[in-house]
Design goal:
With about 50 residues, the protein is mostly helical. It has a domain of about 30 residues. It contains two helices and no strands. The protein is elongated.
Length: about 50
């Protein structure tokens, strides 16, 4: 069990480092997530209108 937690912690540290290095990529990811949310909202609106 402890090994699992430790390996998870290591992976999280690695991901955190990657995110810090790829700050700009993260901004694009957030923009992409926003676009997906907007598209989903538009889809729901379109369904309501029908």
């Amino acid at each position: 069990m402890y090994e699992d937690i430790e390996s998870l912690r290591q992976k999280l540290m690695t991901v955190q480092r990657w995110i810090e290095e790829k700050d700009q990529a993260l901004e694009y990811t957030e923009m992409y997530d926003e676009m997906i949310k907007m598209i989903n909202e538009l889809e729901q609106f379109r369904v309501k209108v029908k």
